[in-house]
Amino acid sequence: MNAGKYWDKLKPFYRNKSFKSTAVILFVLSVVLIAALYIMEQMKADRPKEHDLFPDRSVFNPGSSGTMALWEYFEMLGMKPDKITEPLVDFYARTEFYTNQENWFVRQDKKAETGVILCVEPSVIFSRDDVALFEHIAEGGFTVMIFTGDSMKIGRFIAPEGENPDTHDADLIDAVKFNKVFTNTSKIVKDTMGLFKDIKSLALPDMRRFSMWSMKWEPLVIDSQGTSALSRKIGKGHIVLMSDSGFLSNLKLREGDNGAFIYRLVAHFAGDGAVYFDEYHHGIQGQMTIFYFLAKPEFRHLIVQAALFLLIYFFAAGVRFGRYRYTNIARAERIYYYSEGMAGILGHRRFADRLLTLARENLTRLAVLLPNRYPKVLVDKALERSQTGDGDALHKLKELMRTMNEQERSIK
Question: Are 81 and 74 in contact (CB under 8 A)?
Fold first, then answer.
C-alpha cells in the first residue's frame, strides 16, 4: 500500500469535526495547566521553605524533615546509594553471603552487596524478628546504622540477652535511657576511630544523649554534651545506634560539620560497598506500586501488548467510522446510525456509486419511518436532485447528504 492510499484512509478520522474540537480543547487545557504550574512555581520561589509539621526522614521527602539532600550528597561524593523498599527478609535473601550458599531454590536478579544500611528515624518500632534479621545481616559484613532518639524504637537492640518474649514495647524504655541536653551544638571530645579530629562542631537538633545502655554496647562518639553514638560488633559487621536523626534532614544537613561527619562515618564502614536507605520501615513498599510491575519482564510484556492492542483497536475504529458524535435521538434510530456511520468513508471515490444507491434507499425508508422529521415532499425533491443533478456519483452523494443536513438544522 503506497503512502497516498494510506493518507486517504486517515482523512475521515482527522478531519472529523468532533475530533478537531476535542484536540483543540485538550491543547488549550494543556497550555492552561502548564501556565498555572509555572505561575505557582514562580510564586513559591520567593517564599521561604516551610517546616514539615510531622518529621518524615524518607529520601522521597524533599521537605525540611526529609533526607533527599543526604541521598544526593552521597551521590555527588561518588557513593552508590540504593533504597530498600521490600520486607527485610526479602532483602536478606538477596545479600551476597546468602545467595553464595548456592541454594538452588533462591535466584535473585539483583544481589545486595555488602555495605551500610541507614535507618533514619524509622516510623515503626522494630520487632523481635526485625532485630534478629538485622543481626544476621550484620554477621555477614553489613553495618546497620539506626538514627533515633526514641527509646522504644531501639529498645529491643539494647535489651539484655534472654528477653522475655511477652515483653511489651512500652517496657523496652527501661532498656535504654537518654539525657535531655539544652543546646543543639557540640564538639566531639572522644573519637574511638580517629575519623573526626578536624570536625569543629555538630548541630544535633534532637538534643538527646545516651545515659544508660547494655554493657554489650561500646561508646562510638562522645561529644561535649555526652555519648551520641553506640556501636556493637556482630560477626563481620556492626550495628551503630545514634541518638539524633534531625541532623541528617534536608534542613540541618548543611549546618555545622554535619555533612562531613555523616560522610566520614558512613564511608568508614561502607568501604567500597553500597549504601542502602531503609525506606521499608518508613512505610514505602516498591511491590505495591505500578512501577514494580513495569520492572518485571513478565508483566511488562503483557502491559505493552495490551497497550498496542488498544491503540490498534481505537485507531482502526477512528479510521473506519470517523468517531461521529451522535445525538440522543440518533442512538435509537438504527438506520440513521448506519447511514451516518457510512459517511465516515465518503472520501473514497471508488465507493461513491454503491454509497449513493444505499443512501437513496435509506432516505426512502426514513421518509416512511419518520415522516415528521423527514417530510416526503422534501425527501422526493432530494432524491430527484441526486438522480438528475450534474456531477459524478461522489458529488451527488455529497449534495444528498448536505440537503438532509440542512433539513435537520431547519427542524431543530
Answer: yes
Question: Residue 64 — φ and ψ, nearest 5°?
Answer: -65, -30
Contact between 201 and 184 under an 8 Å Cβ cutoff? The reply is no
Q: Report domain extents, the chain.
A: 3-47+294-316, 68-288, 326-411
Rounded to the nearest 10 degrees, the angle between the axes of helix 334-342 and helix 352-369 is 160
With a cut of 60, say whether residue 194 has pLDDT above it: yes
Cα dihedral: 360, 365, 366, 370 (round 10): 160
Is the Cβ–Cβ distance between 57 and 42 less than 8 Å? no
Phi, psi of 348 (to 5 degrees): -90, 105
CA-based nearest residue to 170, from 159, 181, 161, 180: 159
Residue with cell 543546646: 183
The stretch 103-112 carries a mean pLDDT of 62
Which amino acid does the sequence have at 271?
G
Q: Write the CATH number of the domain with boundaries 68-288.
A: 3.40.50
pTM of the model: 0.59
What pLDDT is attached to residue 220?
Answer: 93
Distance CA 171, CA 57 (A): 26
Closest CA to 122 of 282, 275, 239: 282
